[in-house]
């Protein structure tokens, strides 16, 4: 059956990197029997400029109808002065919420060819393979009340609320336990239960779930320590589960263990296996339009789409192997370059992956 894939390139480097990901999908369709139909929709600042809304109804409807979404990135200085609810970022949050994409899987894997590019020494980081499971449709990014105002004393004030209920925690907890069960059987739940009530509930629910997964070892860690441990000894982690805010921050930190944020893919999944696939990075306005963006994060996100939604693990393996071959050949975008390697543009890196897949 034909799978419908909606491409939402967005802003900044989004369109440049998505172009390379689409070339990868096209070659898989032409040469490897991948049965897909591609469509494209506006999102983020690009949608604000045309429709006045970062997530127009037509884009949301197209995303609902698609079997999977490939998302670039949104945001940039052109829209930074808009009020929060009208900004590109709000469009992405709404899309995640409307599609029920509560589980964001962010694998941080170090390709051995990039050991030199990691922020850490090779002996500390070689063989790194962590899965960060981030709750994506709750917590402080969605909590009510939220707002901004003035107090009677004339002070400016603003507030957001970190809120989770038991069902939301249990749902992401089950996902994380299942993932840990299929990996190294170790799950570290990251919270701030020494300070936050919401983290205490999070911890209680994780502990209750642990009774159903006696083949998985559950540990807990405070988020400040987790940030430090990620940099000190990252290989102690196998699967990590955490809230929306903490997962957002920790996964950017984990990216630098793999050499660059341009290497980290992600899958945002609903309860039925439908997914939105996107790089962990943002729209990188500082390098947009210059051919400097690393397209591997979005290409590896295509691999996750093949594995999790399109049921083509065989092709996911091929894409990941093609990334390895391109790195073996010494191809590097600027973010992962060293003295021994030559700079490749976004398009050259994408082209190399396409050539490998032919
Ligand atoms: N999922 C999304 O669409 C996200 C959007 N954003 C938005 O993106 C805009 C920029 O945010 P920043 O905080 O600067 O984060 P960013 O992730 O866009 O960029 C941070 C740094 O990483 C570099 N970088 C990012 N992606 C890269 C790639 N593929 N190859 C090479 N280098 C790369 C950038 O050049 C920059 O120096 C903001 O408007 C922000 O709200 C931020 C994070 C996620
Ligand atoms: C820009 C935000 C909506 C989110 C973000 O930084 C992320 O999901 O990594
Ligand atoms: Mg982020």
Automatic annotation (TrEMBL):
Catalytic activity: (2R,3S)-3-isopropylmalate + NAD(+) = 4-methyl-2-oxopentanoate + CO2 + NADH
Cellular component terms per the entry's GO annotation: cytosol
UniProt binding sites for Mg(2+): 224, 248, 252
Domain (Isopropylmalate dehydrogenase-like): residue spans on this chain: 4-353
Residues binding substrate, per UniProt: 96, 106, 134, 224
Cofactor: how and how many bound: Binds 1 Mg(2+) or Mn(2+) ion per subunit.
Protein name: 3-isopropylmalate dehydrogenase
Organism this protein belongs to: Salinisphaera hydrothermalis (strain C41B8)
Primary gene name: leuB
